[in-house]
Amino acid sequence: MRAGYFRKMAGATQSPPRVDLAEICWSGLGSLLGILAVAYLNHQFFEGTAWLLLIASFGASAVLIFGAIKSPLAQPRNLLGGHILCALIGVSAFKLLAPCLWVAAAVAVSVSIVVMHATKTLHPPGGATAMIAVIGGEKVHNLGYFFVALPVGTGVLIMLLLALLFNNLSPRRRYPEFWF
User: Fold this and answer.
1) What count of other Cβ atoms lies within 10 Å of the Cβ of residue 135?
2) Cα separation of 106 and 14, whole Å?
3) Coil, helix or strand for 57?
4) Distances in whole angstroms, Cα of residue 159 to Cα of each of 12, 29, 44, 47, 153
5) How far is 107 from 3, CA to CA, in rounded Å?
6) How far apart are CA 94 and CA 101, in angstroms?
7) pTM above 0.90, yes or no
8) How confident is the model at residue 152 (pLDDT cuts 50, 70, 90)?
9) Using 50, 70 and 90 to split pLDDT, how confident is the model at 8?
10) Angle at alpha carbon of residue 101, lines to 131 and 53, rounded to 5°
């Protein structure tokens, strides 16, 4: 291979500066409250039922909407659109390609990336949501397209509401940077 190919991997810039302790604490507390709210509601209303409100990809969304609030990937359009579109794609991939889950998972994630780019809703945790729809097991599969509304739609709305309320309590923070 050409040397130029490997030179591209050296990086063109330096890593961003470290954030201060107040920002670190604010991000940690916000993510704690966001996930705690969704987990508590899941525990109170859905534990022991066929329903769920908490999925793993919400953890990655919390990193963005509480820890990287200025990122375009953390904005409401991306949070909501990314998760909801990817949930639809993931459920569809499962329905069309099961029992070949390894193909369904790959198709779900790759189609999700293409659709998020095309709709300006790129949100990396959305790719995980698509994959959860495929490999999430019987409980997720039994929800079918309802997975899009609960847990995905409802869960991200709860987290968005908390991000709006919490992030704007600090005079040093503003969320969102844009809506659409």
Assistant:
1) 15
2) 33
3) helix
4) 35, 13, 17, 19, 10
5) 33
6) 7
7) yes
8) very high
9) confident
10) 35
